[in-house]
Amino acid sequence: MHHQRPDHCPPRSHCLPIVLSVFLSFAALATSVHAQQLPPLVFVQRQIPADGNSAWPAAALPGVGAHSRLRPAAPGKLRVRNSDGSLRPLVDGAASGSPLIDVSAPSVSWDGTRIVFAGLPAGNWNSTPLGNPGGWRLYLINADGSGLRALTVSDIHADYSQFGSGAVPWAYDDYDPAFLPDGRVVFASTRWPAFAQFADARTSNLWVVNSDGNGLHRITSERNGADRPLVDPVSGRIVFFRWWRNQRLAYDSLADEPVAASQPQLGWISRQGLSTQAVPAARNSWQIVGINPDGAELALFGGKPDSDSDGFGYGGGFAGNGVLYTNYFPALDLASAAGFGGIRVLGRGATQWTAYAGVVRRDANLRLAGTPEAAQLYQGPYATDAEVLADGRVVFARAADLDQDYGLWVATPGGTAQLLLDEAGTAELRPRVLAARSVPPVIPDIYRDAPASAPYPQFLPPPAGTAPRDGTFVFDARNVYANAAVDVDIPSAPAVGSAASIRFYADHQRQAPGTFPSLDWPLFLGEQAISAAGKVSANAPAFLPLFEQLRSSAAAGYAVPRTGWPRGNSVAHVAGMNHDRAGVVAQCTGCHAGHTLIPVPSESNAPWSNLAPGAQVTVSSARAGAGGDGLIDRKVFLGPVRAYWTSAPGQVSGQWAELEFPVPVIVRRVRLYNPRPGDEADSSVQVTSTRVTLRDGAGNVVDTRTSGSVLLFGTDVNFVDVGARRVRVEITGVTGTFDGSAAAGLAEIEVIAKGDGIRMTPQDRLFRDNFQL
């Protein structure tokens, strides 16, 4: 399910999913909460490791990110808090004869009868930050404590010698399990051999296994990480948290620049339109994404995709209505620190999060005195691991300070939190309701072919005439120029006509024995032409991390087109990587961060989108410090009113705005938005009539239409699919003031159109090839 602003919608605060939450106030009570009985809760109680922050002495929150998700925190206990407040053990890692010394991440079956969790048997395990013990496996136990048994075992015997001596044998860990609605278990694992592109961390991926231990198979092909899977109670899809990182980014030049000409084994600085230095590698965060249980239809779940911080999420819990209470940690890579964060609340789609508890943002004013900026340590308390009860209360873990001694708290919907359980010197974490709950929709597996268990061979693509080892899927981009609706807070697509082709790259681990940007250089798979309307379709190898890059025509320098709000602050290069499984037709629209949040239109509707953000804007006049770019930023309710276009003060008659496209387009509709009233400019501007004129590339008028009053939520001026290059909107009637002066203006202009290849003359192509935003 995707979120998109409807054509006519009340103010923004009513368009987004309504989240009834407040930033919690803590009432520290030393006793259990008796006002209303709680359901039974299963949770883990673990020791508190040291070295929780690479830049400052502090304790660690076990189970978080590459830094501490696998660090032993023994002895660990799996415990139940009964409804009457009493406690009972299920697994006690400190008990003599216990088969396990540590536990993590319990998940309860939907009928409430079983618990699956990660367990660590006795052994001499690596307990350092970023370590990989190689002993975590999944276990099942009945709710009454009986029937403990292993669900996953040490069963991979592949030859990993291609990765160097440091990777043989490949010790892997299984962790973060969750019950699927059909009874199977999805979990994270480092079974697939690869190193993330930061800190030499092991890559994690998602796997699915039957409850009897059979049917084990991988469903994701992440380059960096896939952790903390959850089940969306509304859709039944798996929501997980992926590490967004790509060390090789877009580069206009195709030049090969080796690290050292005399030592080719050291790899590359730039090659094949990619560079380790061309663009700052800012993306190093965790995103919230969704996938079907068979591994198909990877897409963003929510958050702001163009912001590492506002798009961040890592684990948490769902309310029954599908609202996500997710963890936030200021050290966004989760490799340099573990913990010191809080809980955010957000709905699906490009929505803004709401603060719930703990540290939920980076705020220099709240940084702990004496700590370096690199530590990203802020004033507590800290919160994590929300479990939303059926009555709206939330159980979560809270710690007061850098010792990260977490206890369990319960909060009412009104925002008051009370202590539930806190035993000094241990961390009580990951609470889950131990009772039957409503079963989400079951999404049956459509695609069943699993990838091979061994690493992919060093070389790809395979010899001519042979298919990739694990099959192919269809990459079906229906319109790379498509934009989301107004006030859907994701970046805009590249300008229509700015892309001539798309390049495909594979970026899997082959021989590099760790995180080395210059080694295992991405493999160029091929290139496909893009139609005038933005359509492209290609076969791509399945079960591999891939990424794509748009290119302009050769006459335009074969450069990477720019995208953004609206003047090109980013590039048309999918840095976050993607993947799919064999047999899938992976459909998408747009080419920018967040494009998977746009509902995929039908084949006939796909070419039509708001192309205005890619146009050049000229206006008759403008107030000081404001031009016409606000007309095409796709913001009506999101931004300040001073981002709108208004004429120079006192100039009301004869005011116009014109949009010129780099190539011919076919215009179906022009939608105009009136400036919203009030706010910081005390605006009362009301456009009462307009004239919309379409012109071709030579300046000839091809059609003219008029409108009456322009509505705050948009007024349509319809055309009968007219070919044009310029769209001029003349304000023929207006009343009101802006900043106290009479003015004409508009909040936004949308041009619903598609690229027109038929009318593209040689002169049009020359214009396109020299077009600059």
Helix-strand layout with pairing:
Blueprint (H helix, E strand, L loop, with lengths): L11 H4 L9 E3 L13 E6 L18 H4 L8 E5 L5 E6 L9 E7 L5 E7 L16 E6 L6 E2 L23 E6 L5 E5 L15 E5 L7 E2 L7 E6 L6 E8 L3 E2 L6 E2 L9 E4 L2 E2 L8 E8 L7 E4 L11 E5 L5 E5 L13 E5 L7 E5 L23 E7 L5 E6 L7 E5 L4 E6 L5 E7 L38 E6 L23 E6 L16 E7 L6 E6 L4 E6 L10 E2 L6 E2 L13 E4 L20 E2 L5 E4 L25 E2 L8 E19 L12 E10 L5 E7 L7 E21 L1 E2 L2 E2 L2 E2 L1 E8 L6 H8 L4
Q: Using the alpha-carbon principal axes, give the shape.
A: globular
Largest sheet: 7 strands, antiparallel
Tell me the span between the first and last alpha carbons: 34 Å
Fraction in helix: under 10%
User: What is the residue-averaged pLDDT?
Assistant: 90
How many domains? The number is: 3
Structural class: mainly beta
Write down the Rg. Answer: 28 Å
The CATH fourth-level homologous superfamily of the largest domain: TolB, C-terminal domain
What is the count of DSSP helices, taking H or I runs of 4+ residues? 3
Reading off the top of the CATH hierarchy, the class of the largest domain is best stated as: Mainly Beta
CATH architecture of the largest domain: 6 Propeller
Chain oligomer state: single chain
The total strand number stands at: 48
Unreliable sequence segments = 1-22, 27-35
Protein name: DUF7402 domain-containing protein
Pfam families: DUF7402 (PF24135)
Keywords: Signal
Signal peptide: 1-35
